[in-house]
Design brief:
Blueprint: E1 6-9, H1 15-26, E2 30-34, H2 39-53, E3 57-60, H3 67-81, E4 86-89, H4 104-132, E5 135-140, H5 153-172, E6 178-185, H6 191-204, H7 208-219, H8 228-239, E7 250-253
Parallel strand pairs: 1-2, 1-4, 2-3, 4-5, 5-6, 6-7
Helix pairs in contact: 1-8, 3-4, 4-5, 6-7
The protein binds nicotinamide-adenine-dinucleotide (NAD).
Residues 11, 13-17, 34-37, 63-65, 90-93, 113-114, 140, 142, 185, 187-188, 190-193 line the site of nicotinamide-adenine-dinucleotide.
């Protein structure tokens, strides 16, 4: 379905981004990976995708908090593959503290990586998509793009920003073969969430399993994590012709979190 297309997925060395990269490759897209991690792990992921799905895979280690890195990543991808047809802005970090104690450098980092990097990648990807008359932009927002939670001021602000940015890009490109949508996961079992589970177990003196159940019990009525390959399947759907007329929306996959 996506054979001949190129998908650049930020933050795809781990978690949700990796799940999306695998599913997009399964659908036939060439992949540009991005994110941090041990070089051996990234090389193994690259080889796994190439051999399993018979697509081309490149990797760019851009630090998305740096605009020059993003510019280099987008230029390198365009030089190798002609253009980026599918852009998935997924990389993100979390930091939790009450607002009055929230470190200013953490605010700046969360806004840069979780929000501004999507603006930069989109502004750099759009001209080629517009010239081609086809493009798909998928932004990994969060339920925290739709509702708030305590101690997550920067993350919630960035994710609400992503939802707004998604609408503007959708409107400016409506009718041009380009869609821009956001995905809003609830809890997904990835390293980003595992850190929060471990911190909670330590802070409350409970087991990791009990911390996991408490986390789900507070917010996610299904009492189960969404899986990264389920989010990957949603990304593939958004790239399909069935979703041609879906644009500017934010789709929760949250076990009922935002239905409450
Ligand atoms: P993760 O920690 O498993 O993966 C994050 C990825 O982003 C990694 O590949 C990491 O290397 C990369 N990254 C981090 N900082 C970067 C930087 N400065 N430059 C380049 N890459 C960087 O996390 P995840 O849970 O898979 O999160 C992915 C996205 O999903 C994030 O935007 C997150 O906010 C969002 N999200 C996650 C959950 C969840 O429950 N896990 C829920 C809602 C939304």
């Amino acid at each position: 379905m996506l054979t001949g297309k190129t998908a650049l997925v930020t933050g795809s060395t781990s978690g949700i981004g990796q799940g999306m990269a695998l599913k997009l490759a399964e659908a036939g897209a060439n992949i540009v990976l991005n994110g941090f991690g041990p070089a051996d792990d990234i090389a193994a992921l690259r080889t796994h995708i190439e051999t399993t799905y018979k697509v081309q895979v490149d990797y760019h280690g851009a630090d998305l908090s740096r605009v020059a890195d993003i510019e280099d990543m987008m230029a390198t991808a365009a030089a190798k593959f002609g253009r980026v047809d599918i852009l998935v802005n997924n990389a993100g970090i979390q930091f939790t503290a009450p607002t009055q104690d929230f470190p200013v450098d953490k605010w700046d980092a969360v806004i840069a990586i979780n929000l501004s990097s999507a603006f930069h990648a989109i502004r750099l990807a759009l001209p080629a998509m517009q010239a081609a008359g086809w493009g798909r932009i998928i932004n990994t927002a969060s339920v925290h793009g739709l509702v708030g939670s305590t101690h997550k001021i920067a993350y919630v602000a960035a994710k609400h920003g992503i939802v707004g940015l998604t609408k503007v890009v959708a409107l400016e490109n409506a009718g041009k073969g380009i869609t821009c949508n956001a995905i809003a996961p609830g809890w997904v079992a990835t390293p980003l969430v595992q850190k929060q589970i471990d911190a909670r177990a330590a802070a409350e003196g409970i087991s990791v399993d009990d911390a996991r159940k408490k986390l789900l019990g507070e917010k996610q009525p299904s009492m189960a994590f969404a899986e990264t390959d389920q989010l990957g399947a949603l990304a593939v759907f958004l790239c399909s012709s069935a979703a041609d007329q879906m644009t500017g929306v934010t789709l929760p996959m949250d076990g009922g979190w935002t239905a409450q």
